[in-house]
Design brief:
Blueprint (H helix, E strand, L loop, with lengths): L1 E2 L2 E2 L6 H23 L4 H22 L9 H26 L6 H27 L2 H8 L3 H20 L7 H13 L2
Antiparallel strand pairs: 1-2
Helix pairs in contact: 1-2, 2-3, 3-4, 3-6, 4-5, 4-6
Length: 185
């Protein structure tokens, strides 16, 4: 069952297996919550986010594996495509669920121009020219990887800006409190 930290002789690490089990519990819970309150769009959006994370962890944990009888190129596309799907859906989820309008550019243009388009264009063209899957993945992730960090920062700033008036105290006060607590020890 567990050989060299891998589950059932697959490429999946045991920690990824635990995360998948936890995600399954969350998805089952959200599924019943969605059935209970079908009008709650935030909950439905969260369900889809969890489902994409589950798919990403399963494909990322299993692929690439020579023992699976799926072409290796398709395995890489499924593995990295799952990550791209999560990266593309996250800003959409926060835009819709929390009405964060400052993410509109990323929803309409950024995801397509800097995430999905470059990966598939660079991945397929590089693989078609070189037949080197590792090189194709490296070139395919050249633009989407830095853009995913830009998306993460943009989402964080947008949520902070939207809810900064609801914070209990100023962030400077939090920093000063942390410094004071460390100094007074």
């Amino acid at each position: 069952m567990l050989e060299n930290g891998l589950l059932f002789g697959s490429q999946m690490h045991w920690a990824t297996g635990i995360v998948i089990i936890i995600e399954l519990f969350f998805i089952i819970h959200q599924f019943f919550q969605c059935l209970e309150r079908p009008e709650d769009k935030k909950r439905r959006g969260y369900f889809w986010l969890l489902l994409l994370l589950l798919i990403y962890n399963i494909t990322g944990g299993l692929f690439p594996d020579d023992k699976i009888k799926i072409p290796i190129v398709l395995q890489y596309l499924l593995c990295y495509g799952g990550g791209l799907a999560v990266s593309a859906y996250c800003p959409f989820y926060f835009y819709k669920s929390f009405a964060v309008s400052s993410l509109k550019f990323h929803i309409k243009w950024g995801i397509w121009l800097f995430l999905i388009g470059p990966f598939f264009f660079l991945f397929t063209s590089c693989y078609a020219l070189t037949s080197n899957i590792d090189l194709a993945v490296n070139y395919g992730m050249a633009i989407p990887l830095p853009y995913s960090f830009i998306l993460l920062i943009a989402i964080g700033k947008a949520i902070y800006k939207k809810y900064e008036h609801e914070l209990i105290c100023d962030s400077k006060e939090v920093v000063l409190w942390i410094i004071w607590s460390k100094v007074s020890q």
